[in-house]
Automatic annotation (TrEMBL):
InterPro entries: Malate_synth_C_sf (IPR044856), Malate_synth_sf (IPR011076), MS_C (IPR048355). This is Malate synthase C-terminal domain-containing protein. Residues 9-80 form the Malate synthase C-terminal domain. Pfam families: MS_C. GO terms for molecular function: catalytic activity. It comes from Lysinibacillus macroides.
Amino acid sequence: MLRQQKFLIRHPTGILEDGRDITLVMVLKILEEELVKIKEAVGEQAYNDGRYEEAAELFKSLIEQDEFTEFLTLPGYKKLA
């Protein structure tokens, strides 16, 4: 994800075709919905063995910040270490 995309989630300027603003609340709801879909697609065991929840938490922490993270990969590298 580009830094600008992350910033736009936090500070919405995007509008959907139906006129709704793209908001942080909307993105977090979609994130939760997508996690459910992933769990259904891969199965509960594979989901629990994977790092889906951890990845989602990392994504949430990045988009909830008020300022840009200079290098988005750095928080990910810290999680992998």
